[in-house]
Specification:
Strand 1 and strand 2 form a beta hairpin. The chain has two domains: 107 residues, Helix Hairpins (Orthogonal Bundle); 73 residues, Fe-S cluster assembly (FSCA) (GMP Synthetase, Chain A, domain 3, 2-Layer Sandwich), CATH 3.30.300.130. The N and C termini lie far apart (40 Å). It has 191 residues and is of the alpha/beta class. Strands 1-2-3 form a three-stranded mixed sheet.
């Protein structure tokens, strides 16, 4: 394993919190794939893209005073966080697009100082509340583990391969959570 990959894997494990077994343990990944509508190869590619793009951004001086999160779902990459200038945000988007496996990039980077720990903690709390709330969705066939939830500055981003009805139900549930300023749907609709 390359020296840069191990710190990246550990960093992803820390960022994913309770999802660390997905990064570290192959068995846990296997269990998660059973519920996922993405093929196992795509799940692995998404995890790899997140690490590779984060590493590529780390090699650039543009991002020394930045807080950039990379989320990949079905090879659709979401960039969230803060960068010091519009040019830095566009550079991050360009770097993400350079990976052949990336189908689309959604650039939601804000311009400004990196968010404080208190703001990130608030966002993590909102994410937890949305994820927990998804278990209350009463929609036939709905599996809350198929929805990826990302929160940045009170904005909740929802990703996943879901039916139109599942997308509506998940969105409605996310909007009920206190502290949510806005819900952005990045779902891919399946039949």
């Amino acid at each position: 394993m390359k020296p840069v990959v191990l710190p990246a894997l550990l960093g992803v494990a820390v960022l994913l919190g309770g999802c660390a077994p997905l990064v570290v343990g192959g068995a846990a990944t296997g269990v998660a794939v059973v519920h996922d509508r993405r093929p196992a190869k795509t799940v692995a590619m998404d995890q790899s893209l997140e690490i590779q793009i984060k590493s590529a951004l780390g090699d650039e001086a543009w991002f020394d005073d930045s807080h950039v999160n990379i989320t990949s779902y079905n090879m659709q990459v979401l960039l969230t966080g803060e960068v010091p200038t519009r040019e830095a945000g566009l550079a991050a988007e360009r770097i993400a697009r350079e990976f052949n496996e990336v189908r689309t990039v959604v650039n939601e980077l804000g311009i400004g100082e990196p968010s404080r720990l208190s703001a990130r903690s608030r966002d993590a709390w909102i994410t937890t509340q949305v994820k927990t709330g998804l278990f209350a969705v009463d929609q036939e066939g709905f599996d809350p583990t198929r929805v990826k939830v990302i929160t940045e500055r009170g904005v909740v981003y929802l990703m996943g391969l879901v039916t139109a009805a599942e997308a509506e139900a998940a969105t409605a549930q996310a909007r009920r959570v206190r502290g949510v300023r806005k819900v952005v749907r990045l779902f891919e609709i399946v039949r």
